[in-house]
């Protein structure tokens, strides 16, 4: 019984530690991405870039619908 309790405590400690490390990593990652995005100078899109963005948007719409249906199930 003592072994099970000790094992449970170790597993809980590990889970909490992993959660804290992941939260810290996620926070630092988000800050890094935000800094990188803010440092980009705005520019003008070419016609090809505009068309590419519109195409990507249209391709993502059916995927979104699929995700919504899976979530509903």
Number of helices: 2
Order of helices and strands: HH
Number of strands: 0
Radius of gyration (Å):
22 Å
Rough shape?
elongated
- Which blocks of ≥5 consecutive residues have pLDDT under 50? none
The major beta sheet can be summarized as: none
What is the topological layout?
Layout: H1 2-38, H2 47-72
Keywords:
mainly alpha
Give structural notes:
With 73 residues, this protein is an all-alpha fold. The chain folds into two domains: 1-41; 43-73. It is 86% helix and 0% strand. It contains two helices and no strands. The relative contact order is 0.05.
In short:
By secondary structure, the protein is mainly α. The chain folds into 2 domains: 1-41; 43-73. 86% of the residues lie in helices and 0% in strands.
